[in-house]
Amino acid sequence: MYSYIIFIFGLLFFIEYYFFSNDKKYLLIYVLRYILVNIFICLIFFLFYKKGLYFLLLLSFAKLLVDIFFVFKKLVFKQTDWKKYYSKKPIKIITKKRNNNICFILNVLKNNSFFGGNVLEYGGGNSMVAEAISNSFDVRKFTIVDSNKYGIELLKNRNIDNLNARCESIFEYKDEKIYDLIYSIGLIEHFQENDLIKCIKEHFRYVKDGGYVLITFPVKCFRYMFIRTVMEVFNLWRYTDEVPLNNKKIGDILKDYGDVIVNEVNSKLILPQAIILVKKGVKLENEK
After folding, report:
1. Cβ–Cβ under 8 Å, residues 133 and 161
2. 215 and 184 in contact (C-beta within 8 Å)?
3. Do the beta carbons of residue 123 and residue 155 sit within 8 Å?
4. Are residues 130 and 221 in the same domain?
5. 207 neighbors 179 (Cβ within 8 angstroms)
6. Residues 127 and 164 in one domain
7. How many domains does the chain have?
């Protein structure tokens, strides 16, 4: 019996991971996860109380139908609540891993001859990375753009020299091509399809020729999918519009804008993150 439980659990997870982990089919993903958990619970329940199996199955799938119409619809394509995210302090293990990622990013910049200049961060509300970059490099002007007003207000508590904080979306922001480094930490995965490509392009609009663009995002892998599944089951997942990406595919897209000099995955994080550094070498079409 235990072998059947393991087989069914593994098979359903395999099907979900390889065939349904697409943002357009997010409802199917959620329903499949729900069914998977219910089947697993039912099989465990069956080992101890066989007569209650059919009743439990009926009750579980009745709840599934209710959730499809009243719960899942609210979750599908729902934007991440960034004010709620910024308001809640992360647990210590998350903070520790986040510091590891900051050190990883700083080392990537130092090892590739970035010394300072004008810096722009997209999606940098309450940014700790900006504070670390400000303290580690000679930054003449530090612009941070984020569409969340609360996240921008929190920047006042950060030690960032020459700060220019702007409450705008990445598509609304206008400036001159003056930046030596433009970067984002965990931003592009919140855009889908055409908006994803537009978001990537905006990273290169105001960076100087020969300047740097650094982009990080979660990588689609077994560990990510497993941890996210567990957290969603217990309603702990907060990044409702996040879609993990393939760093090789994103790297291929970035080759159109310059030389990809770093494309690595920081696997020491709980949810592995890709870090890609590009040295701009070509001009964008319709830059102005």
Report:
1. no
2. yes
3. no
4. yes
5. yes
6. yes
7. 2
pTM for this entry: 0.74
Same domain, 50 and 145: no
Residue-number span of the structural domain to which 174 is assigned? 82-280
288 belongs to a structural domain: no
Strands 273-280 and 207-218: antiparallel
**Measuring CA to CA, which residue among 177, 174, 178 is closest to residue 166?**
174
Residue 113 · residue 224 · CB < 8 Å: no
- For residues 136 and 260, membership in a common domain is answered with yes
* pLDDT tens-digit readout, 198-247: 999 999 999 999 999 999 999 988 888 888 877 876 777 888 788 899 99
Report pLDDT digits (tens) over 155-175. Answer: 988 899 999 999 999 999 999
Q: Is 143 in the same domain as 215?
A: yes
Distance separating alpha carbons of residues 145 and 167, to the nearest angstrom: 6
Based on the domain organization, do 69 and 115 belong to the same domain?
no
pLDDT band of 20, cuts 50, 70, 90:
very low
pLDDT value at residue 239: 85
